[in-house]
Amino acid sequence: MTNATIANEPSAAASAAENPAATIPALRLDRVSYSYTKGGKKVLDGRSHDFQPGMVPALTGPSGAGKTTLLSRLSGLAVPTEGRVLYHGNDLAKTDRYRYRSHDIGVIFQSFNLLPALTVAENIILSMDASGKTFDRPKTQIAKELIAKVRLRPEYADERILHLSGGEQQRVAIARALSYDPSIILADEPTGNLDLGTQNDIMAIFRSLAHDEGRCVIIVTHSPEVAAQSDEVYELAKLL
């Protein structure tokens, strides 16, 4: 695990120009700033950083440091006030961000956002339907494979979300985020309400997704234990 702080840094694009052989990151912050009102106080100020494929970075920092704001920019929900967020070298502000969110990036929400009246398989398949992607095999088969990948037994496919524990729902949320095979996963406090054993198991799943499958798995967390199990700690400081 390495440590990184995100103070103002040289332009990431300039760094890449100096070393053209460097691997293009999955996501790149290039002098990203953001304020909620024009001319207002900045929540983010000139942030530059590369998020590499095959890695599990932990995004940490105190409340009010801009973690949620940064997550929204990385996920393409909004664009920076200044600077750029680049996905495989392409500026998100100039691309189809709906397609990016439905094809290239999977988000795991702190509150899961699963539909409680549906079964596990139905939640996963609904996400596949919403992506608009085509698949090389039946969606029910893919859903069953994802259920196994997140370490749930096959019979969970027909279980309703209402009947699941918090840890089980978190696994379903991971499976749903993986349903359309995104290259990037963003997880917002994914272990916040889980016991230590379940937390460790969830982190093992994330590390496998990154290290074995080459995905970039970015985790927002307050947990020192989660940060310690990540490949990189990227700490945000609250602006004065």
Task: Write structural notes for this entry.
Belongs to the ABC transporter superfamily. The chain is an alpha/beta fold and 240 residues long. The chain has a single domain, classed as P-loop containing nucleotide triphosphate hydrolases (Rossmann fold, 3-Layer(aba) Sandwich). The chain contains eight helices and ten strands. It has helices spanning 12-18, 67-74, 97-104, 120-131, 139-149, 166-178, 196-211, 224-228; strands at 2-5, 27-35, 42-51, 57-60, 82-87, 90-91, 105-108, 184-188, 216-220, 232-235. Strands 1-10-4-9-8-7 form a six-stranded parallel beta sheet, with helices on both faces. The protein has a four-stranded antiparallel beta sheet with strand order 3-2-5-6, with helices on one face. The longest helix has 16 residues, at 196-211. The protein is globular, with a radius of gyration of 18 Å. 39% of the residues are buried. The model is unreliable at 5-22 (pLDDT under 50).
| End-to-end CA span | 29 Å
In CATH, the topology is named Rossmann fold
pLDDT average, as an integer? 90
User: How much helix is in the residues?
Assistant: 25-40%
Number of helices: 8
